[in-house]
Fold:
Amino acid sequence: MTKMKWKKWSALGCSFALAAFLGFMIPSGVTRAAEMASAPTVTVQCGGRPLNVQTPNGQKADYGQQVFSQDGYDGAFTVEAPGTVSYILDQTGGADVKNEADLSGLQWTPLSDKRIQLPGDGKYLLYLQVSVEETVTYHCCCATVDTTSPVFVGITAGETYPIGTTFTVDDLTSVEVFFNENPVAAKPDAQGRYTVETQGYSNSCVIKAKDAAGNEASARVFIMIDAYTPVNGQIDHSQRYYLNAKTPYTLAGGTWTMNQEGAADPNMYTGGITVYVKNPGFYTLGNYRDFDWSTWWKNWWKQQ
Structure:
């Protein structure tokens, strides 16, 4: 055998030996790169909507990513995957997803009919174990199921409360609160409390709450108002007001009386002007156009 042929056969023999060695070193149960390229397709749906299925690797659980309201919700997760499927349904609302390496030794529930029934509203973390021939893969997805309307805590519809009454809203998901048809959502304080607001000269307040799932709640409550604060400094209604010093207030047309509580005699003003008060406090303002002359005349006539 020539020297050239010997080199060719030697190189070929080394190649076969290396391939055999690598094949021996990689166990048959371990997924190779070629097998990884054909990983199974796994889909999960809830209420007809697809969930974001990922590989579990210790990432943060994003429960806000999938929110389901009453529309289309059928009370279950529906799983589509090849091979044999088992699952673990975590209902604790944990912040972190487990790593893939931590899942193999857990107790799994075989999936028989593609549906995983949910017990009700809550935050769910679903793990899936998919076995296709000798390949096992792990998958996960998160979802918040919210079919319940927000609940007002601290107030009850139809009841009357003092000025400054606060309340909170209880719900699984984030909530926006609106007062008196105002399209701009109210802002809570640092403790998540809202203060009941009235509008204009009304002593009632309509409160609406809407959560991230689209569920809504509303309530009308009443406030025990003993004085009003003029809106934008405009006084156009006979009423008891709280006025601040050095603040301009504009009187509507007509003839007005203004009397500070504790003062002997009221002041008289012609409407259409801007007035200031020297001392802050409660003032009673009356406009003669609002005076019930008919009732006054009847009472006066009876006394004659």
Notes: The chain has three domains: 40-145, 151-224, 234-292. The longest strand covers residues 122-132.
